Amino acid sequence: MAFLAALVTLASLLVGSLFYQEQVKASPLERDLAAVPGVTGARVERSGGRWLVRVELGGVELLPVTYRQLRELADRRLGAGRYGLQLADRRTPALQRAFYEMSYYLEEARARGNFAEAARRVEERGRELGLRRARLYVDPDYLYLELADDGGTLYHVQPLRPPGEVNGG
Description:
Layout: H1 2-34, E1 39-47, E2 50-57, H2 63-78, E3 83-88, H3 93-112, H4 115-128, E4 133-138, E5 142-149, E6 152-159
Parallel strand pairs: 2-3
Antiparallel strand pairs: 1-2, 4-5, 5-6
Helix pairs in contact: 1-2, 3-4
């Protein structure tokens, strides 16, 4: 009987310790993320052994800069590659349609490397659709698409290379 009580106590302590460790990581990260300009909310949860970092964005000045800041904060608190980063925006049906029209430009740019041409085409199509903002950015790791109209914003970030692809060097 004493063994069973000790086992239950140990299990309770372990569960409590895990919960405490998770809160020690999640709460400070949520505060750090919320302090990034353009962030309107942040939630950090653990699901299936992996962290999920969900960040709500309002208007941001430069999407790549904001995204890098978010990743750096999450890397520092949770460890690189130990979480998924999900951006929540205020997309409208019109922005969603514009995204689907422009997604071809992103895929073509990834395949051919014609990023300047794709950025020009995104801005041109955005003007034709009456969007307030239509921008495509690229850095060594990601493609960033930012669309805005008077009713909302849409942010899309995708890896420049498919997962697992190795860069020659």
